[in-house]
């Protein structure tokens, strides 16, 4: 007998999952709560809601209509948050431009996304000027000036953001859209080929918001988040919707603090002055903070920080915990909106000692609500959740990108077999925790065994003289590949840290059976900095090119 379908009453209202409906709750529950931008702007949620309407009216008066694409080039700001809501609520598409792209990649993404309007911070005018003669679809450019006088520029600026809002009424009748209407788009920051465009609908963003809140708020754990928290992102808002957290924290009506350009002293100042309790960032930013001399002047106790984008090394985790930072990992990617898992400790783990907790805090985490995670062998069969069977991580959730813009071939490869293929390899343990062991492209094949570069990085990060580390595979005539460690020493250890010290340190783990003997690197480079991508991840492609 077939399943019964619901037959709605003809006059019943089919409530769509739309971004505009996320704003209703905070405007009722938290109308006087604050949204802060650096030490420059302070507004209430009521004022924020009014400015969202003003922005929509201003864009509509400029000719923006449903289906058009509005791009943003800005630091993390209240303006960006207003765009997160106003643009998709109008039925337009928000393109969050990666401000760290090369000029060639920048103009490719602008033209590929078919941007109609660009909102640009004055600091990025020179970058935009360098590609202005190649615009294919751009009709209007709006300046984001931070209250400063408009600078000289070769661009034709059509308006200034604050002046534009001041001329516009707050009331805007946001339409009831189909919940599958495209809301956002942005481009992946891979290290090979041209950037790939992903896209997300209103329905996907709303469901992702609910999942974030259930995962981070509903379960007893080491770091629950609620409306009493003070939120400050330290992940660029162009990077996968700042991991979806601005939508989630707005729905909660929590106080939000937007730091603009990331400067250690400003971040720490805002953390203390605004009493920030929740943030998220990549390991590079956390490393920058814990290594800052200014850190000694601040009390960071109770600051909950999710680390994503790259693995959280245990050495960095311990350094953060020692400063009172309640740190743990999250996992996702551009194609997944992004959140797939969080390393939330189960209640019985809260009694464990720090060493055992660090192991779990650095795990890739438990799948969030409505997320199916599996690991597949090369033939596409699921592997047991036994903590040792390793394969490619594949996923299904309601909020995954349905493909790449204008790229059928790569879209089909992404979704082969009806599962989204992450390109990561890992295992799932008996408690349901995922552990990414490497990227498929970064695993080191040596001596007939696969060696995890992430595991070696985790081990070397625990050496007391090591500040940062990356491990890559380099060609070897005998073994095919050998692991090489690229190490940044702590400032006071630059003259004393030696290659032999690192090799001896790793050899102890091989002697204990933690890693195979082939995992001990026989080549070490001690350097001042590590190559990074535009979003602060380790750029191993560049390192392989440099050291091959």
Features:
Rossmann fold; GMP Synthetase, Chain A, domain 3; 5-stranded mixed beta sheet; 28% helix; globular
Structure description:
It is a single chain. α2 packs across α3 (78-89). It is globular and about 70 Å long. It contains 16 helices and 25 strands. The strands form six sheets. The protein has a seven-stranded mixed beta sheet. A five-stranded mixed beta sheet has the order 12-13-14-15-16, with helices on both faces. Among the domains are: 45-200, Rossmann fold (3-Layer(aba) Sandwich); 444-547, ANL, C-terminal domain (GMP Synthetase, Chain A, domain 3, 2-Layer Sandwich). It is α/β, with parallel strands linked by helices and 548 residues long.
Please summarize what this structure is.
This protein is of the alpha/beta class. It is about 30% helix and about 25% strand.
| SS content category | alpha/beta
Please identify the oligomeric state.
Answer: single chain
Largest sheet strand order: 7-6-5-3-4-8-9
Largest sheet: 7 strands, mixed
Query: Strand tally, please?
Result: 25
Beta content:
15-25%
CATH architecture of the domain at 45-200: 3-Layer(aba) Sandwich
- Overall spatial form: globular
Mean pLDDT: 94
Specify the CATH class of the domain at 45-200: Alpha Beta
From the alpha-carbon coordinates, what is the Rg to the nearest angstrom? 24 Å
Helix proportion: 25-40%
Name the poorly predicted regions: none
Task: State the end-to-end distance.
Answer: 63 Å
Number of helices: 16
Fold-level CATH name of the domain at 45-200: Rossmann fold
């Amino acid at each position: 007998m077939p399943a019964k379908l619901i037959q709605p009453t003809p006059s019943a209202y089919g409530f769509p999952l739309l971004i505009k409906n996320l704003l209703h709750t905070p405007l009722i529950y938290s109308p006087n709560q604050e949204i802060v931008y650096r030490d420059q702007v302070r507004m209430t949620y009521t004022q924020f809601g009014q400015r969202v309407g003003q922005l929509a009216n201003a864009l509509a008066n400029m000719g923006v209509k449903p289906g058009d694409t509005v791009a943003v080039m800005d630091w993390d700001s209240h303006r960006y948050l207003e765009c997160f809501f106003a643009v998709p609520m109008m039925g337009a598409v928000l393109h969050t431009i990666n401000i760290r792209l090369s000029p060639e990649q920048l103009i490719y993404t602008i033209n590929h996304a078919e941007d109609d309007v660009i909102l640009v911070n004055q600091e990025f005018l020179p970058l935009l000027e360098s590609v202005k003669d190649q615009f294919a679809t751009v009709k209007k450019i709006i300046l984001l000036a931070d209250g400063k006088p408009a600078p000289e520029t070769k661009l034709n600026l059509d308006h200034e953001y604050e002046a534009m809002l001041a001329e516009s009424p707050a009331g805007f009748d946001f339409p009831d859209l189909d919940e599958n209407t495209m809301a956002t788009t942005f481009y992946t920051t891979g290290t090979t080929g041209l950037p790939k465009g992903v896209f997300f609908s209103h329905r996907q963003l709303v469901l992702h918001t609910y999942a974030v809140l259930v995962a981070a708020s509903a379960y007893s754990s080491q770091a629950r988040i609620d409306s009493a928290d003070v939120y400050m992102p330290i992940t660029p808002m162009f990077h996968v919707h700042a991991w979806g957290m601005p939508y989630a924290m707005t729905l909660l009506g929590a106080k939000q603090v937007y730091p603009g350009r990331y400067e250690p002293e400003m971040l720490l100042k805002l953390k203390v002055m605004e009493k920030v309790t929740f943030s998220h960032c990549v390991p590079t930013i956390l490393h920058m903070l814990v290594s800052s001399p200014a850190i000694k002047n601040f009390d960071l106790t109770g600051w909950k920080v999710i680390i994503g984008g790259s693995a959280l090394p245990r050495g960095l985790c311990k350094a953060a915990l020692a400063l009172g930072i309640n740190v743990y990992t999250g996992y996702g990617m551009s194609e997944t909106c992004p959140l797939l898992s969080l390393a939330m400790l189960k209640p019985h783990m809260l009694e464990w000692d720090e060493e055992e907790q660090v192991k779990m805090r650095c795990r890739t985490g438990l799948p969030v609500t409505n997320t199916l995670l599996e690991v597949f062998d090369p033939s596409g069969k699921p592997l047991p959740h036994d903590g040792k069977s390793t394969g490619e991580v594949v996923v299904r959730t309601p909020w995954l990108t349905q493909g790449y813009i204008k790229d059928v071939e790569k879209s089909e490869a992404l979704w082969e077999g009806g599962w989204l293929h992450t390109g990561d390899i890992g295992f799932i343990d008996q408690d349901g925790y995922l552990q990414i062991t490497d990227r498929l492209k970064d695993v080191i094949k040596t001596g007939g065994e696969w060696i995890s570069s992430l595991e070696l990085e985790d081990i070397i990060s625990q050496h007391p003289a090591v500040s940062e580390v990356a491990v890559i595979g380099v060609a070897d005539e005998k073994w095919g590949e050998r692991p090489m460690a690229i190490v940044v020493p702590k400032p006071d250890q630059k003259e004393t840290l030696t290659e032999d010290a690192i090799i001896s340190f790793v050899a102890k783990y091989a002697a204990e059976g933690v890693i195979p003997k082939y995992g001990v690197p026989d080549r070490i480079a001690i350097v001042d900095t590590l190559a990074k991508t535009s979003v602060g991840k380790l750029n191993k492609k560049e390192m392989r090119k440099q050291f091959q």
